Every structure is written in structure tokens, then in C-alpha cells.
């Protein structure tokens, strides 16, 4: 094996890059050197010969009947002097001397190979980490830049943005951190791997590590939500009736879940039994509060009303609304929590409103309605202000003795009275 081939294979092994990419880099370097040396507009190409370890440079020209561009064309007459089988529109390769290119090519080759190798490394890293979305990585804190943390994760660096950090976790240089990959960006300076300590997928990965039943699929995580560093809720179900998913997740004396809590620096984790029954699922999701009743307020808009005892209200809502907020995110339903006492008061107020609306108000209570008008209205079957408010001006104008303008004033006054607004005084007799 020649020396150049050995060098290509060595770089390929050390950098994990296809030897073909390095060969193409050498060819590009030779072309760049040739253009710089010959100062020509010719279409220069290069070809690496692995047998000899040499790189040939040649100008490619199209064969034409009549030459209009000497840099890129050759007449058929000249081409036939090289090979009698050439025809018009074929291409001919004209060798260029490479002895003089040695020093220039060597300098250019270093630059081009370095660039190509760097580009190839970036593509390999991008492809590798793009396939690891949601996977755990171990990193060491190398730098802290404006609140963001730069981690060394082996072959490259990753960024742990401030808004992806768990707020109860202080970090310092040299700390070892386990995080989950959430994004991989392709940037001009190379791939950017974004990791998180607050994403729910980190919790799921930790469950897979610490709980064998989750890892083998016996226990399934239906959903997980977090407020990083403070509290999380995980809904679990079992594919085996003999396995309690909550018990398996907690472990003997809490051994399994405590390992996850330690990794998350004390984050509180509620493990919830998943249910296809939305009412049962709601009761489980709002644990540890005891729920009195669950009502589906808006099935299409997915709104629930949850009723709890007075002493359970603050527990159901949680600190700064955290418990109900996480339960709502876990289920995908809006949850409105009401105490039993408050619900009773709502029902009483509604009953009072209905009772008040059902008592007919005599026409005499409507300001400005005279006896004659009342008599005419009574004869027409209109006995109360509510009856009057339900009529149209045309209905009243059809009653003998009531003009259209009077009818309009009566209707307006009755409707205003029924709605609780100040009435419009009538001048009717």
C-alpha cells in the first residue's frame, strides 16, 4: 500500500469518516491548486488513483465543429488527432502537468482536507444525535454563558438553556449532569444539541432505568407532566392484571421512585393510576385531595367541574394552583374546582332567581299604566308584566284603544322591568 493510501486510511479510522470523503477532499485540493497555478478558465478536474497513490489533473473540453470558447471547447479536427473515434458533443480530457503543483497542492490540501473532515464530522454528529431525540446523555459542565450551561457530552458539546433547567438545581463547573436531548439544530458552525432537565421525557427515561416493569413494557406510562424541580404527575397503566402499576413504580418502601426523586433533586412526583373513565381518572389525577363529585360541564370543550369538601379545597388546588394545573395538563381537560358550600350557594341563588322569575308581576306595578289600559290588556288575556314583555308592539296595537306608539312604550317598559332596568314611563290611561 502506498503512503498516501495509508494516510487516508489513518485519518478515516481516527475521525470515523468515510475514506471516499477524504479522497474527494484531496481531489478538490488539487483542483484548487491547479486553478491557482495555471490561472485558467478551463474546466479543471482531478482524479485520485488508489493503485499508484497519485492525483491526475486534466481539463475537460467539449468537442464541437467550430470553437467559440477555447477554454471549454475543442474542435473535432483537433480531437481526432488524439483519438480517431471521437465525435461531436463528446468530452475529451486533456492532462495538465502536476509536478509544479506539489508545494501549492500540499498547502491547499491541508486546508481543504481540514475543512472537509470538519464538515464530515459535523454531519456525522448531526445524524447521530438527530436519531437520539428523547434519549439520555451524560455531560460535564464546561462553561456557563449568560445562564445557559455548556456541557461536554463526549464527541461534542450540548447546551442546557436556562429555561430548560430545573430551577431548584444549582450548577457549577465540573458538575456531572444527566439530561435528555430535546432538539438538534444544524448551524453553520456545526450542530447544536439542546438538552433539558425539566422536560417530561427526562422523567420517562428515568422511570425506564429504575423500574424494570416500565422498561419491559409491563407498566405503560400514559402521560407525564412536570414543573421542573417542583412537582410532576405520571399516569401509569398495566398490561398485566397481576401487576399493580402504581405499586411497581413506587417499589418496596419507595425504593424505586426515591431513586428518581434523588436524580431530580427532590422533585415531588405523584404516580397516578390511569383510567379510561374520565371521572375516575380525574379523581386519581387530583390526588392527594379527596374528591366529592366530578361533573362534565362541557364535553366538547373538555371542561370538568370538580366539587370537594371545604377542608379539601386548598389541597385540590395546590400551592399556587399547581396540583389542579398539572392534573389538567395530564388529562387534557380544563378543571374548575368548587367547594361543596360554594356549590350549595350557587344552587340556592339559581333557585331564587327561578322562583322570582316565576311569580307574575301585576300590571299595576308598571309605572304609568292607567286603569283603562290595564282593563284593555286584561280583556286581551295579558294579566302580568311578564305577559306584556312577551308580546310584540303589533300584538298590542291590534287591541282596540291602544295606539302603536303607546304599544311600543308599553313593551319597552315591560321588558325593562323584567330585566331589572329602570322602566320607561308610559302616559297611557
The CATH superfamily title of the largest domain: NusA, N-terminal domain
Q: What summary fits the major beta sheet?
A: 5 strands, mixed, barrel
Q: Provide the gyration radius in Å.
A: 42 Å
Shape verdict = elongated
Overall mean pLDDT: 84
In angstroms, what separates the terminal alpha carbons?
122 Å
Q: Fill in the CATH topology of the largest domain.
A: N Utilization Substance Protein A, Chain:P, domain 4
Number of strands: 15
Question: What would you say this structure looks like, in words?
Answer:
The protein is an alpha/beta fold. The strands form four sheets. Strands 5-6-7-9-8 form a five-stranded mixed barrel. Strands 1, 2, 3 and 4 form a four-stranded mixed sheet that branches. Helix 2 (19-38) runs antiparallel to helix 4 (102-130), helix 5 (200-210) packs across helix 8 and helix 9 (278-285) runs antiparallel to helix 11 (322-331). The protein folds into five domains: 3-124, N Utilization Substance Protein A, Chain:P, domain 4 (2-Layer Sandwich); 134-198, OB fold (Dihydrolipoamide Acetyltransferase, E2P) (Beta Barrel), CATH 2.40.50.140; 204-274, 2-Layer Sandwich (GMP Synthetase, Chain A, domain 3); 275-353, GMP Synthetase, Chain A, domain 3 (2-Layer Sandwich), CATH 3.30.300.20; 360-419, DNA polymerase, domain 1, CATH 1.10.150. The chain has 16 helices and 15 strands. Helix content is 41%, strand content 25%. Residues 423-429 have low confidence and may be disordered. The longest helix is centred in the N-terminal third of the chain and has 29 residues, at 102-130. The termini are far apart.
Amino acid at each position: 500500500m502506498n503512503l498516501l493510501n495509508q494516510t487516508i486510511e489513518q485519518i478515516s479510522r481516527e475521525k470515523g469518516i468515510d475514506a471516499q470523503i477524504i479522497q474527494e477532499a484531496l481531489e478538490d485540493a488539487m483542483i484548487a491548486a491547479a486553478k491557482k497555478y495555471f490561472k485558467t478558465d478551463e474546466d479543471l478536474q482531478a482524479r485520485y488513483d488508489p493503485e499508484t497513490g497519485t492525483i491526475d489533473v486534466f481539463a475537460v473540453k467539449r468537442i464541437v465543429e467550430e470553437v467559440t470558447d477555447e477554454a471549454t471547447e475543442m474542435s473535432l479536427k483537433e480531437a481526432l488527432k488524439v483519438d480517431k473515434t471521437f465525435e461531436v458533443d463528446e468530452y475529451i480530457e486533456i492532462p495538465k502537468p502536476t509536478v509544479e503543483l506539489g508545494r501549492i497542492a500540499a498547502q491547499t490540501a491541508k486546508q481543504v482536507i481540514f475543512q472537509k473532515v470538519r464538515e464530515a464530522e459535523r454531519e456525522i454528529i448531526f445524524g447521530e444525535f438527530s436519531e437520539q431525540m428523547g434519549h439520555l446523555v451524560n455531560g460535564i459542565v464546561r462553561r456557563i454563558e449568560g445562564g445557559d450551561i455548556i456541557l461536554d457530552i463526549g464527541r461534542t458539546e450540548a447546551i442546557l438553556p436556562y429555561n430548560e433547567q430545573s430551577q431548584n438545581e444549582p450548577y457549577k463547573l465540573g458538575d456531572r449532569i444527566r439530561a435528555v436531548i430535546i432538539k438538534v439544530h444544524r448551524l453553520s458552525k456545526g450542530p447544536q444539541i439542546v438538552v433539558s432537565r425539566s422536560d417530561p421525557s427526562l422523567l420517562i427515561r428515568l422511570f425506564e432505568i429504575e423500574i424494570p416493569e416500565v422498561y419491559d413494557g409491563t407498566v405503560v406510562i400514559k402521560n407525564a407532566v412536570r414543573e421542573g424541580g417542583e412537582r410532576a404527575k405520571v399516569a401509569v397503566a398495566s398490561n398485566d392484571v397481576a401487576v399493580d402499576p402504581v405499586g411497581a413504580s413506587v417499589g418496596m418502601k419507595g425504593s424505586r421512585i426515591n431513586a428518581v426523586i434523588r436524580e431530580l433533586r427532590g422533585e415531588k412526583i405523584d404516580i397516578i393510576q390511569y383510567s379510561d373513565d374520565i371521572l375516575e381518572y380525574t379523581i386519581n389525577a387530583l390526588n392527594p385531595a379527596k374528591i366529592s363529585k366530578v361533573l362534565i360541564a362541557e364535553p366538547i370543550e373538555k371542561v370538568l367541574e370538580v366539587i370537594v369538601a371545604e377542608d379539601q379545597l386548598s389541597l385540590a388546588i395546590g400551592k399556587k394552583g399547581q396540583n389542579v394545573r398539572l392534573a389538567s395538563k395530564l388529562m387534557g381537560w380544563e378543571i374548575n374546582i368548587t367547594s361543596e358550600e360554594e356549590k350549595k350557594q350557587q344552587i340556592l341563588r339559581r333557585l331564587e332567581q327561578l322562583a322570582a322569575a316565576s311569580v307574575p308581576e301585576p300590571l299595576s306595578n308598571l309605572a304609568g299604566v292607567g286603569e283603562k289600559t290595564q282593563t284593555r290588556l286584561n280583556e286581551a288575556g295579558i294579566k302580568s308584566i311578564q305577559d306584556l314583555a312577551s308580546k310584540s308592539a303589533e300584538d298590542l296595537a291590534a287591541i282596540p284603544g291602544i295606539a302603536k306608539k303607546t304599544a311600543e312604550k308599553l313593551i319597552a317598559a315591560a321588558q325593562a322591568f323584567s330585566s331589572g332596568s329602570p322602566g320607561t314611563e308610559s302616559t297611557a290611561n
